[in-house]
Amino acid sequence: MIGKGQLLQDKVIFITGASSGIGAAAASVFAREGAAVVLAARRKERLSAVVAELDDKGFDASYVVTDLTRAQDVREAVDFVVERHGRLDGAFNNAGIGGDQAPLHRMEDDVYDSIIDTNVRGVWNCLRAEINAMLGNGGGSIVNNSSVGGLVAIPAAAPYVASKHAVVGFTRAAADEYARQGIRVNAVAPGSTRSEITADWYDRNPGLEDSIHAITPQGRTAAPEEIAEAAAWLLSDRASYVTGVVMPVDGGFVNR
Known about the structure:
Layout: E1 12-16, H1 21-32, E2 36-41, H2 44-56, E3 61-65, H3 71-85, E4 90-93, H4 109-135, E5 140-145, H5 158-178, E6 183-190, H6 196-204, H7 208-214, H8 224-235, E7 246-249
Parallel strand pairs: 1-2, 1-4, 2-3, 4-5, 5-6, 6-7
């Protein structure tokens, strides 16, 4: 019955970008809510450390080193989930990068290419592999990590903004296309959140965090766990009639 027990009880959840920040927080939150979690990222040492911490707490956690920009890598990662657990119930496509900030006319091609390759192609590769696995299992739930930059403009970050708008487009298109096959696809759109991306931006732009706080109704930066909690609900059966939604988790930023 909906509403009973843990949010993700007995679910098998795949998490990308899980070696730090929101992804690592999601691994902990999802495991605490009853899920078996499989973590994916490029950094083996960081993944191993996160999984070891979860293992010490008695959670079912494993990892697979994956380059999300390579379709074959992603297919093999999802195959690993299915081989280990017999199915894939949910996925949190969290991995992404911010890249350098600069006015659009001064942005370098390599910055654009890197952001689009990770934030757009990475989600594209994940959606195809995950949906394919879920179609063979009667359905599932996917949450993509977009950004407030997928809903409104952010100065000096045109490639990032474009990439996160693309994630919103993928979310809505996939939700529409696979709803009748039992697959729900939603997105979270975090505002200022403690992560490697924001730490890098704030370090290189003194005063930027204070400026964002000044125009955020709650007046603060989110903890990664706060984004993970929202993703957990969207992945859960308690959100069974929710699909195609892009949920701001931003302290009221886009509603100001």
